[in-house]
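Okay, can you check this protein?
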Amino acid sequence: MRSIIFAASLAWAVGMSGAAYAKTLGIVALLANDALNIDVIGGATEAATAAGWDVKVIDTQASADQANAAMSTFAVQKVDAIFVLAFASSSIGSGLEAARQADIPVATWGGEIAPGIVATTSGRQVGDDSVEFLLKEVGENADILALTFHPGKLCIDRGIAFEEGVEGKSGVNVTYNEIVVPGQVQSGNAFAQAWLTSHPEGGDKKLGIWSCWDEPMSGAVAALRQAGRTDVVTVSINGSPQAIQLVKDGDMTATVWQPAYEEGKQVFQAILDAEEAGDSWEPKVISIPGVVVSSENVDEFMKDHPAK
């Protein structure tokens, strides 16, 4: 009996010892159920698991206060690195300070380099690609509904790209509406319905809707369907499976696919590289080109990028 108890105790001790040596990545998600967040978390988790790390995720529901609280929680838990998704560095100051005091490196996705941040990704290029495609479709005599979201750093950068893209085009009139989260699909639907009412079919201007990510656009597409409108160019960003299917079905003009899964993997690798380099590490910005997916290439894209 004693030998059985000893064996069980030894097994428990070995297990606890292994757990004690496993490093942990703490992920602070903007919206954990958003398709792009899911992809970047998936990529980082795959890379971390392959390296023998554990992963913890906290969903902030797009609240900067909750993001700072999550980072402070991870600091107390003494995780080995923190990965923050889509919050501006200026909005997570207390979280960065908590990480600094605990000597924990921080990486961000769609953020910017700031003290304590070892790596981030750039979302600007997909914003440039989206407005370039939209303007190619509607020309320079157009009315556009722009669905923005300023709590999210990715959307801030994409919004800047959009604003710079339409700047100086006197024939382009833009109506800006700020999406509400949670409820981004319903918010996009409500704004589109109101805008469509004031922009009836058959006018002398081309019409377009731009969204800084796919979910509000799916609500706008529903409004277009309900109104029986096929005269509006619709362009969003992320390239979620749902958005790709809308393009395939002819309900959305285009979405710009962002390679979030690969970005998640590369950010985690940067964390490992920074850990190995120590004080010689230079913070880096990771930029991976996206793909504009429209009716012209959607079949090829779906073949090359099967939905997970």
Observations:
- Residues 1-19 have pLDDT under 50 and may be disordered.
- The first strand starts at residue 24 and ends at 29.
- DSSP finds eleven helices and twelve strands in the chain.
